[in-house]
Design goal:
The protein is about 35% helix and about 15% strand. It has about 350 residues and is an alpha/beta fold. The chain folds into two domains: about 5-45 and about 165-345, Rossmann fold (3-Layer(aba) Sandwich), CATH 3.40.50; about 50-160, Rossmann fold, CATH 3.40.50. The longest helix is centred in the C-terminal third of the chain and has 18 residues, at about 235-250. The structure holds ligand 5PA.
Length: about 350
């Protein structure tokens, strides 16, 4: 089977935009050319984001099965559950989302603004659960699925981040194919791809998608670098490896993946999932103040910190051309308004 054999229900505007970030590149020494591919503005549904891209494949399956309610899980400020709820509304389906206490964050508005506010506006059936951060399968999610059945509905099960699902990697395998087309249009080649990784299927899908490329036809080797923002590294690496392998098989990659195709870097995850540190804030400020490109303190601020750190350390060598995959997430920013540098005055970390 190939990627094109999998039914896809279109939810995006089309290919997500790509563009250079010349002032950010300049601020980091001007020797590495940085571009962004913008999943944060990929769709008109609920502000878009990486999950809408993944859901193109999952909802095609849900509709084919005749399901009437999407059931998923995330934290209180989950971007994923906001996007699942938006997609359900767009399709005229019901939606139940379990929202756990993944982050112990002291903002008094944490559980009313941002993603959860948007999910409530869309009329989502939100089930709050106090359990802490875990990307695995949870009993509360199984209970939500059962409750839909008991009420006479037909649920479609979407795990955290739409990742640990047979079709979870397809959206970002398609991202890799789309990027190669955009490279041809712009006559450029990206030797580094930077992506935030937590539940793993954005990163894993790309690995599988790029594994379809004929390496000998590329001008230079391509490295896909996942920047961990889970702070539970072993679980994320395990999940990325598993989903990349399954997805590669599913789309017809005719060889096992090599170890060097699966790279997760650490050091940018901050003190815990959902908690920024000084490098996260500095990264958010730098992209915002050089390019007007906004990022959040849970995911993209951390992958951006990774990009900045690897350019400064020389791990991404002068002469490289980098594609920063912006996966969305800005809707969480109001929930962090009490943090110095993210709303409250002070906390400026100048580059
Ligand atoms: C998320 C995830 P993966 O989960 O595919 O690894 O992507 C990480 C990621 N950037 C990166 C943004 C903006 C994200 O929202 N978010 C989760 C959520 O519940 O929102 C799945 C964790």
């Amino acid at each position: 089977m190939t990627l094109a054999d999998h039914p896809r229900h279109p939810l995006l505007f089309g290919p997500s935009p790509v563009h250079p970030l010349p002032r950010l590149s300049e601020a980091l020494g001007g020797e590495v050319e940085i571009w962004a591919k913008r999943e944060d503005c990929n769709s008109g549904i609920a502000f878009g984001g990486n999950k809408v891209r993944k859901l193109e494949y999952l909802v095609a399956d849900a509709l084919a099965q005749g399901c009437d309610t999407l059931v998923s899980i995330g934290g209180i400020q989950s971007n994923h559950t906001r996007q699942v709820t938006g997609v359900a509304r767009h399709l005229g389906l019901g939606c139940v989302t379990v929202q756990e206490g993944w982050v112990d964050w002291p903002d008094m508005n944490y559980d009313t603004v941002g993603n959860i506010q948007l999910t409530r506006i869309m009329g989502g059936d939100i089930r709050i659960d106090p359990a802490g951060f875990d990307i695995g399968i949870r009993d509360s999610w199984k209970a939500a699925l059962t409750s839909v059945e008991e009420a006479g509905g037909t649920p479609y099960a979407i795990p955290a981040g739409a990742s640990d699902h047979p079709l979870g990697g397809l959206g970002f395998a398609n991202w890799a194919v789309e990027l190669a087309e955009q490279e041809a249009q712009h006559e450029v080649f990206f030797d580094h791809i930077i992506v935030c990784t937590v539940t793993g299927s954005s990163h894993a899908g790309m690995i599988a998608g790029f594994a379809l490329e004929d390496v000998d036809s590329l001008p230079r080797p391509r490295r896909v670098i996942g920047v961990d923002a889970s702070a539970t590294l072993d679980k994320t690496v395990d999940q990325v490896t598993r989903i990349a392998t399954q997805t590669a098989e599913r789309i017809g990659v005719a060889r096992p993946l090599r170890d060097d195709e699966i790279t997760v870097v650490v050091g940018y995850e901050g003190p815990a999932y959902g908690v920024p540190d000084a490098q996260t804030i500095e990264a958010i400020h730098l992209a915002a103040r050089t390019e007007g490109m906004l990022t959040d303190p849970v995911y993209e601020g951390k992958s951006l910190a990774g990009l900045i750190g690897m350019i400064r350390s020389g791990e991404i060598a002068p002469g490289s051309r980098v594609m920063y995959c912006h996966l969305g997430g800005q809707a969480a920013l109001p929930a962090y308004a009490g943090a110095p540098g993210l709303g409250r005055l002070g906390g400026d970390v100048e580059a």
